[in-house]
Write a structure and sequence with these properties.
Shape: elongated
Low-confidence stretches: 85-104
CATH class of the largest domain: Mainly Alpha
Strand order of the largest sheet: 11-12-13-14-21-18-17-16
Radius of gyration: 27 Å
Number of strands: 24
CATH topology of the largest domain: Glycosyltransferase
CATH superfamily of the largest domain: Chondroitin AC/alginate lyase
Oligomer: single chain
Number of domains: 3
Structural class: alpha+beta
Number of helices: 15
C-alpha cells in the first residue's frame, strides 16, 4: 500500500507560525488509516498483511502488536537506559567505537532502567493527575479530566512541559520496568492516549507553546520512540492503543516535514532529531526513508549554521550546547545501530570536545547564559562510545576508566570560551571565562549580557559563581532581567548599564614555557569604551587579572565580583574579600591597598535551579578615574582559614599597551608574568 497519496485531506501548510503568514489546511491521519501508510515490503510485515487480507483491520492490528513485541531487526533508541541516575553505567562503555552494542534491538532484551525513590513519587502523583512540569512551581492537580493546556501559573514553560511529558514519562517507565506492576503501564498508556485524543493537529495548536509547536513535537517524538518498547509487553498495550499511537507518531513526522521550524536555534535541532528517531525506529512507515534523509539533511544543515568552527553551539549557553550535542550523539548512535552513517560526525565530535575542555572539576558545564546545573558526563559517555575517545571516557567516569590528556588549558575562540585547570582531579584549580560574539540566535534568547564573566573552583568547591538563570518567564521580567544583567556578572560596567556582546580573543597562551598560561579578550562593551581583560594562570595555582577600560567614554567604571554562596568577608578598608569556609577550599580576591578604587558591596542572587535563589556575597571595585583606566586583581585559592600573603604590581606597560608585565608574590613565592600581543 502507498502512503498519503491515497489519503485525501491530510494537513498541509504554508508559511510558519513564527512568521506573519501561516496557513493550515487539512486534518491528521486517522487511526483507521494507519495501514495505508505502512510499507508492506518491510521485513516481518508479511504476517500483518496476511492478517489484514484475511481478517481485516482488527486482525491486522493484533498481528502488528505481535510483530513489534518480537521485532529484532531494528534497534530501539538507547537513551532511556543511558539517562540513568548515575553517569558511568553505560552498558556500551567498554565496546570499541564501531562495534554495535548488544541487547538493544528486541524490546524484551532492552537493558533495565534504574529506579530511584523520586521516580515512585512522580509516578504516584501522575496516577492522581498531579504534575510538576517545572521545578520553579509547585505540583498542580489537574483533576480527573486533564486539560493539557491549563496554565495554573501563567508560565509558558509550564504548559510546554505538559505537552513534552518529560516531567513524568521516564519515571513511569522506570517504575514499570523495575516492578512490572500493570498500574504503571496503564498509567503511561492512558495518559498518552488521553493526550492524543485531546490534541489533534490544528492550526491553533501549532503556535508556541501549544501542543503541536515545533519543540513540543520534537520532544514527544524522541520520547515516544524511546519509551514505547518498555511497555509493549503490558496487557494495557492493546492493538487499538498501538494503532492510535502509531497514527499519532505519523502525524508528528508529517508535522515536522511539512512545517519545519524556520529559525536557527535549538528548536530546529530538537524537531529534526525527533524526525530522525521516528524514521530510524519505525522503518515500517512507507515514508521512513524520505524522513530519515530529510532529518539527516536538516541536522547537517543545523550543524553548519548553528555550530561555530570551534564546536561551540552559537546560542552560547553551555547547557543548551550540551543538550544539542546529546541529541546529535543519540541520532548518530541510533543510526549506526540500524546500519546508517549520518553525515555529521566530525562536527559533533568538536561539540563534545568543547564540553570536555570547559567542564569544571565537578564535571559540570560553566553556568554561562541560560545554563542550569548541567552534568557533562552524559555527553562525554555517549561521545566516548561513538568516537572511541579515551579522554572522553575519563571525563565521563571521573578518571576511573580511559586516560586523561596532557593538555589542560583550552580555548574555543569562535564561541569565546576559555578554560584553565591545574590537573584533572576534582580538587583542581579551575577557571572558565566567557567573552564572545553575539548569539547566533536572532532573538539572543539564551545568551546573557555577560562578556568577560567567569567561574572559579578549587579544592572540590566552587568559589566564585555566575548568577545563573532563575526564570524563563518573560511575563515577569523582574524574575529574569536581573540575572541576565551585566552588573550581576563578574565583569566591567560603565554606569552600571548592560554591555554589548561584541567579544573577541586578542591573545591565547596555553603554556608560556614557565608553567603559566594566559588569555586576553576584548569586548566592545559600550560606545566609546572597550573592556580588555587579561587572565594569567600562574604556576597552576592562582590567577592575575588585568582589566582595562579603553576609550574616552565618561562615566563610572565598576569591576564586579561574586563569591560563592556561604560565609564570606568583604573588607572595604583593605579592599579585599574572601570566602570563609572553616575547612576546605577558599578564595581571596586581592587588590593592592593603595589602588585607586573603592570597594562597594552589592546585592546579587545565585540561582542553582529554576525558581530557586540564594544571596551571593558580591562586591564591585569602582575606579577613581574615568576611562582609560586599569584594574589589577588577584584571585588566590587557598585551603583552611589562613589567607596567603599577597603582593603584586604592574611593572611595565601603559594602559592600553600591547605589552605589560606583572610581578609579585603569593605565600612567599615570587612570580612574574608578561603579556605580549601581536
Amino acid at each position: 500500500m502507498r502512503s498519503d497519496k491515497q489519503i485525501a485531506g491530510l494537513f498541509q501548510t504554508e508559511g510558519s507560525p513564527y512568521r506573519q503568514t501561516f496557513a493550515f489546511e487539512g486534518r491528521p491521519l486517522k487511526p483507521e488509516e494507519l495501514f495505508l501508510v505502512l510499507n508492506w515490503q518491510q521485513p516481518g510485515l508479511a504476517a500483518v498483511r496476511a492478517a489484514f487480507n484475511t481478517g481485516g483491520f482488527d486482525a491486522a492490528a493484533t498481528a502488528l502488536l505481535a510483530y513489534f513485541r518480537n521485532r529484532a531487526q531494528v534497534a530501539w533508541p538507547a537513551w532511556p537506559a543511558l539517562d540513568n541516575h548515575t553517569n558511568s553505567d553505560d552498558p556500551r562503555e567498554s565496546l570499541p567505537a564501531d562495534e554495535p552494542p548488544p541487547g538493544l534491538a528486541k524490546a524484551s532484551a532492552l537493558p533495565p532502567l534504574s529506579l530511584a525513590d523520586k521516580d515512585r513519587t512522580i509516578a504516584t502523583n501522575a496516577l492522581r493527575h498531579i504534575f510538576q512540569t517545572h521545578s520553579s512551581r509547585a505540583p498542580h492537580n489537574y483533576g480527573p479530566d486533564i486539560n493539557w493546556d491549563e496554565d495554573p501559573y501563567n508560565a509558558i514553560e509550564w504548559t510546554s512541559g505538559m505537552h513534552r511529558m518529560t516531567s513524568w514519562d521516564l519515571a513511569v517507565a522506570r517504575c514499570y520496568n523495575a516492578t512490572k506492576e500493570p498500574t504503571y503501564a496503564g498509567l503511561w498508556i492512558n495518559l498518552i492516549r488521553d493526550w492524543i485524543r485531546k490534541n489533534p493537529v490544528t492550526k491553533e495548536r501549532c503556535y508556541f507553546p501549544k501542543s503541536w509547536d515545533s519543540i513540543q513535537v520534537g520532544f514527544r517524538a524522541r520520547r515516544w520512540c524511546g519509551l514505547l518498547p518498555y511497555f509493549l509487553d503490558a496487557t494495557d498495550c492493546t492493538p487499538d492503543f498501538l494503532v492510535e499511537f502509531l497514527a499519532a507518531l505519523y502525524n508528528h513526522a508529517r508535522r515536522i516535514v511539512v512545517l519545519p521550524y524556520p529559525n536557527p536555534d535549538n528548536f530546529l535541532i530538537i524537531e529534526s532529531a525527533g524526525l530522525a528517531d521516528i524514521a530510524l525506529t519505525f522503518p515500517e512507515f512507507f515514508d521512513a526513508d524520505e524522513w530519515r534523509q530529510k532529518a539527516f539533511e536538516r541536522l547537517a544543515e543545523t550543524l553548519s549554521s548553528q555550530v561555530l568552527p570551534d564546536g561551540v553551539h552559537h546560542e552560547l549557553a553551555p547547557g543548551y550546547h550540551l543538550y544539542c550535542a546529546l541529541l546529535f550523539l543519540d541520532v548518530i548512535d541510533l543510526a549506526r545501530r540500524n546500519g546508517f552513517k549520518p553525515p555529521f560526525r566530525e562536527m559533533v565530535e568538536s561539540m563534545a570536545q568543547a564540553v570536555f575542555g570547559w567542564a569544571s572539576p565537578m564535571r559540570l558545564a560553566p553556568v554561562v547564559g541560560d545554563t542550569l546545573r548541567t552534568d557533562a558526563r552524559r555527553v562525554l559517555m555517549r561521545a566516548a562510545h561513538v568516537f572511541g575517545r579515551s579522554d572522553f571516557l575519563a571525563g565521563a567516569t571521573d578518571g576511573a576508566k580511559g586516560s586523561w590528556p596532557a593538555q589542560r588549558n583550552f580555548a574555543f575562540r569562535s564561541g569565546g570560551f576559555y578554560a584553565f585547570r591545574s590537573d584533572w582531579t576534582k580538587d583542581a584549580v579551575w577557571l572558565a571565562l566567557h567573552c564572545g560574539p553575539r548569539s547566533g540566535d536572532p532573538t539572543e534568547c539564551h545568551a546573557q549580557l555577560d562578556n568577560g564573566t567567569f567561574e572559579l573552583a578549587a579544592f572540590g568547591r566552587y568559589l566564585m559563581r555566575d548568577p545563573g538563570v532563575y526564570s524563563y518567564n518573560w511575563n515577569h521580567p523582574e524574575e529574569r532581567a536581573p540575572f541576565r544583567s551585566t552588573a550581576w556578572h563578574q565583569t566591567l560596567t560603565l554606569d552600571g548599564a548592560n554591555s554589548a556582546r561584541a567579544g573577541r580573543c586578542r591573545d591565547w597562551v596555553a603554556d608560556d614555557g614557565h608553567g603559566n598560561a594566559s588569555v586576553t579578550v576584548e569586548n566592545a562593551a559600550y560606545p566609546g569604551l572597550t573592556h580588555r581583560r587579561t587572565v594569567f594562570f600562574v604556576a597552576q595555582r592562582f590567577f592575575v587579572l588585568v582589566d582595562e577600560a579603553l576609550g574616552d567614554a565618561g562615566g563610572a567604571l565598576d569591576l564586579h565580583f561574586n563569591l560563592t554562596p556561604g560565609p564570606a568577608q568583604i573588607e572595604r578598608a583593605i579592599k579585599c574579600a574572601w570566602t570563609n569556609f572553616p575547612a576546605g577550599g577558599n578564595v581571596l580576591v586581592w587588590v593592592e591597598p593603595t589602588a585607586p578604587v573603592i570597594l562597594r558591596e552589592e546585592q546579587v542572587w545565585f540561582s542553582p535551579w529554576f525558581g530557586q535563589k540564594e544571596p551571593l556575597p558580591a562586591f564591585a571595585y569602582r575606579h577613581a578615574e574615568k576611562a582609560p583606566a586599569r584594574f589589577l586583581t588577584l584571585l588566590v585559592p587557598f585551603q583552611g582559614l589562613a589567607k596567603p600573603e599577597v603582593a603584586a604590581r604592574i611593572v611595565a606597560g601603559a594602559v592600553g599597551a600591547e605589552t605589560l608585565s606583572v610581578e609579585g608574590s603569593v605565600a612567599g613565592a615570587a612570580f612574574r608574568v608578561q603579556r605580549v600581543m601581536a
